[in-house]
Backbone:
């Protein structure tokens, strides 16, 4: 298992709403949970499928025949960015796609908003596909594991499942475009007093 740092970019209506994700201990919940309000373990198991992961990654706005709604509103997955490297074969070079830049792009709704909120968090990923296991995030950016072509691979996505617990979130940052500055500028950081550092995890056991 690998502990992976990630960033989630969100477009939210206010600082209060942004801070509440940490202060209320609700964590980063998937759209499905927020849409239906109540979920069950059996429903979670039914939702965590390879087909639904493909819809989340490649067909996010596709209408779900069962609900008549875009799949995005009922996805059990949470898109996080960890960054990635894109290989340009023609130019014989590699391009680094930074996680923070991707998160800002999503947090500003693709440049339509003048502010964004970024959540720095960690998840556990496996070295291979484990979609049915709730506590393990899927490293869909990894071409060694997810070999099917995706137009969105350069987003460096890690797909968490159902919820990123609040104690996995280190902080929330607000970025905004100031009147006299034409680029996003860091405004403030709201740290999480209940954050649990991932260094608590280790594969080494002490002697009994």
Residues:
């Amino acid at each position: 298992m690998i502990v992976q740092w990630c960033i989630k970019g969100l477009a939210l209506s206010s600082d209060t709403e942004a801070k509440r994700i940490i202060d209320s201990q609700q964590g980063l919940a998937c759209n499905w949970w927020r849409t239906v309000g109540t979920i069950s373990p059996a429903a979670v198991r039914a939702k965590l499928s390879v087909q639904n992961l493909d819809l989340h990654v490649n067909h996010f706005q596709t209408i779900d025949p069962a609900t008549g709604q875009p799949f995005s509103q009922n996805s059990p997955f949470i898109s996080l960015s960890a960054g990635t490297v894109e290989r340009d074969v023609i130019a014989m070079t590699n391009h680094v796609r930074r996680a923070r830049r991707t998160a800002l792009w999503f947090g500003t709704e693709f440049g339509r908003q003048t502010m964004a909120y970024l959540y720095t968090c960690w998840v556990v990923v496996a070295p291979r596909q484990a979609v049915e296991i709730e506590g393990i995030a899927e490293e869909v950016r990894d071409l060694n594991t997810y070999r099917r072509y995706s137009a969105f691979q350069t987003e460096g996505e890690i797909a968490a499942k159902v919820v990123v617990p609040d104690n996995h979130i280190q902080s929330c940052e607000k970025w905004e475009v100031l009147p006299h500055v034409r680029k996003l500028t860091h405004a403030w950081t709201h740290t999480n007093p209940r954050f649990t550092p991932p260094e608590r995890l280790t594969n080494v056991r002490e002697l009994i």
Notes: The first strand starts at residue 2 and ends at 10. The two ends are 23 Å apart (CA to CA).
